[in-house]
Design goal:
Blueprint lengths: L12 E6 L4 H11 L6 E7 L5 H8 L4 E3 L8 H13 L5 E4 L8 H6 L4 E5 L11 H7 L4 E8 L9 E8 L6 H24 L3 E4 L2 E4 L2 E2 L5 E3 L2
Parallel strand pairs: 1-2, 1-4, 2-3, 4-5, 7-11
Antiparallel strand pairs: 5-6, 6-7, 8-9, 9-10
Helix pairs in contact: 1-6
Amino acid sequence: MMRSPGEPEKKPRIVILISGSGSNMAAIADAVKAGDIDADIAAVISNKPDVAGLQKARDRDIDAQVVDHSGFQSREHFDVALMRKIDEYEPDLIVLAGFMRILTADFVRRYLGRMLNIHPSLLPKYQGLHTHQRAIDAGDTEHGVTVHFVTEELDDGPNVIQAVVTISSDDTADALQQRVRQQEHIIYPIAVKWFVSGRLTMKDNQAMLDGIALPAGGLRLEQ
């Protein structure tokens, strides 16, 4: 559709899915407000009512919605309702920011190539839960966080960007988690910015930046 003379260009629209505190959502929203990300956050949707992230969204004048997974008889029914709610906002990008639900294949296929997730490990290491303790128990010297495209395999889509955190000999899972979270708030807005500016795409199950395939681990930020 042609824009009328003087009509402002429509910005890319983002929907962010959360399940808890919404700290990564807030980092992205603040980058949008600061003008670092040229996009609009159309909505924040939680699968749990009354989580802190919903209030953080409202405090930033973002439409905050709940699709409570506990009210559905199956994962499939919940995902259909969630898709309907997401599609009301016509988003260009879906951002999973601490969204603690395993998504059905139909859901993933609907948004394939325009859905990002953040995972607290240097993928492909430590898919799933309890990543910080698992890295410590394994005697690893480094840990970190990965932003990746979402595919049907859990935590296994093409990696976009990673940040590395050094593990010290006296580290606890909680201390390590805090340092990793600081890096999450740096790299997730970067990945979102790349996507909405048209620089980041997924092609043939590879993450592409400026038309060039990224390494298997994605771009890597060292401490």
